[in-house]
Design brief:
This protein has 205 residues and is mainly α. It has a single domain, classed as Serine Threonine Protein Phosphatase 5, Tetratricopeptide repeat. It has eight helices and two strands. The protein has a two-stranded antiparallel ribbon with strand order 1-2. Helix 1 runs parallel beside helix 3. It starts with a strand and ends in a 6-residue tail after the last helix. The model has no long low-confidence stretch (mean pLDDT 92).
């Protein structure tokens, strides 16, 4: 079973991954976006950590941790990333409800609901060269293991390179979007990679 502290560690690990990869995310965003994906997410996850520290009693359950994180991302991250990541975490948190502990199966189901909410918000589907190309295979693979989910998400992000973007800022480039890895899919893979790192530490595998 996973308690609120587990989800706090997940957000902390995600923030560390974003900080480590912020320059690469921005580099990926430069040719097909606004060259701000890394800096936006870094600002957002830094704010998430601050919010969780400032409001410990407001995030005393797994669902509350994710809802607070989602609200914070929506309020601090510019562009599309804030609403999309915020929706992912808020919806996941709402599905988890007020339980003090949740099972891996419950988390998997909640994340699936969160990904569905992202798809509805963005009007996108796998193959459109968006974060869904990492999130959908990643969450699908959670039934196997957290590490399998991280690997599937990373492979999904890599698979966006030959795709033509059909949604978001990159879609305006048409054929010129081909040959570039989608930054949103890449950061989504970081999020699921951070989850795997917390759920299945190196020494436990």
């Amino acid at each position: 079973m996973r308690d609120a502290e587990f989800f706090r560690r997940w957000m902390a690990a995600a923030a560390a991954s974003v900080e480590r990869e912020a320059d690469r995310l921005t580099e990926l965003d430069s040719p097909i976006g606004d060259a701000d994906h890394g800096s936006n997410l870094l600002r957002g996850f830094t704010a998430v950590l601050a919010a969780l520290e400032a409001e410990p009693t407001a995030a005393a359950a797994p669902g509350a941790v994710l809802q607070l994180a989602g609200r914070t991302l929506i309020s601090t991250v510019g562009g599309a990333s804030g609403p999309l990541y915020g929706t992912l975490l808020r919806r996941t948190g709402k599905v988890l409800g007020e339980s003090a502990e949740v099972s891996d199966a419950e988390l998997r189901e909640a994340l699936s609901e969160g990904v569905g909410a992202v798809a509805r918000l963005g009007g996108a589907a796998p193959g459109d060269k968006t974060m869904l190309d990492a999130l959908v295979p990643g969450v699908d693979a959670l039934g196997t293991s957290y590490r399998a989910a991280a690997i599937a998400a990373e492979n999904g992000a890599l698979a966006t390179v030959p795709m033509r973007a059909r949604k978001g800022r990159a879609s305006y480039l048409g054929e010129r979007s081909i040959g570039h890895q989608d930054p949103g899919a890449t950061s989504s893979a970081l999020l699921l990679g951070a989850l795997a790192d917390v759920a299945e530490p190196e020494g436990a595998r």
